[in-house]
Amino acid sequence: MNVEFLLSATFDNRRVIPSQDRLFKAIVSSLNEVNINPLVMISEFSIIEDGSTLIYSFHPSADPIYFEFKTDTLFITISTGSFGAGYHRFIVGVLDRIARRLDIEFKEDSVHKDPSGYFKSRNFEALKKFFVNSLADYSKMLITHHDNGFSNFMISMPYNYPIIEKEYFALSSLGYWGKNWFTDFIDADEASRLSLASDFFIWDTEEMNAKFWFKSFISMIWLYFPFREAIDYKEKTMYKKIMYAFQESYKKDPNLRYPWDILVDISHYLDDENLAKFIGSKKNMHQPNVEIGFRLENARYSIAAGFTIVLPMRMNVFKNDKSLMEFKDINIYIAMQAYSFANEETDVIMEYVLKQIDIAGEDKGEKLDIKSNSKNIESLVYEKELEDNDHIITVACAAKKLALLAWFTYSRTEDRDICLEAIKSIDIEN
To answer: Please, are residues 374 and 428 in contact by the beta-carbon 8 Å criterion?
Structure first.
């Protein structure tokens, strides 16, 4: 469900044309004013390497806004996706403020106009109906695709999100959605559709109410919380954003069904014992605790050169370049290097990969009777114990024209099975 449109504004001779740096600083300064942007605590921005584009994310679960400055013209790409009418209105309002501050006028692209018509009409009731009708059309499309044999639909999920190794109908940033929900939505009358849509969209009203903040932190948990201690600054920052959204929701409505157990855990991970005690004291023992957690599921990750591997969702993924990928958890570290060849003989390729292992001249350890389950891959696995009770498993995989060399390091014996199951799951995409 993508609602995307383009705007532009040209700086003419009536005013001083700003430098790119000054322009981007003025935009960020405008967006970061607390009284204007209520999302300031969970928003962030970055500038891409060539320096020509400012990327501003108002919400971790929403698509960012792109500001590009070239030839005296500011171009903006807006995508509101499945966030809802309230978010769409908010973004247009923010752009209005930027236009006033910079004394410019944004104009719609002649081709890529706001499909809802809101940028021109500013009719919020019509905007809500547009999103409801768009959701109805989208629902019909999902049902048609499902009837043609497809499933496991991912709705406006982050780019490159791994495929969960579980059968489901549809998945969005708010969780799993069954087929019946979409068929019910299609069959519902207009009033019922408006009610159902308010559950589906994260921000469906003009007001930033309790439900908006509630669905905000729910979406952040679903997408980004790895159900363990933070292992880097980025994760810790996300934990803070989750707790901020929870606190804003709780201020407005303490009676919603909150995921108390998860919130207590996050408080401990942030070393905020007072917050943990507060949350624990507010938990209603007679009210069911909201369970959230496809981050605890296994998912299939794509690796360079067509290889894939299945790991728990809580593994951090780092792609350093086109051929190296790293997975990191609290107690498990995996590094994977891919190679390509002109040769299709797997035995020759395996010989080459084993030589790469032997370059350091170290003992590979004991050979394990563990292999990839894929019929398209030949694999060899070795394990040895390191100092301080650490263990390393070295894996060599060879396929036609491709090879994979991987190192699995773990410290706790209970994590060994995760490594072995991951090795068995290594496959090659067609």
So the answer is: yes
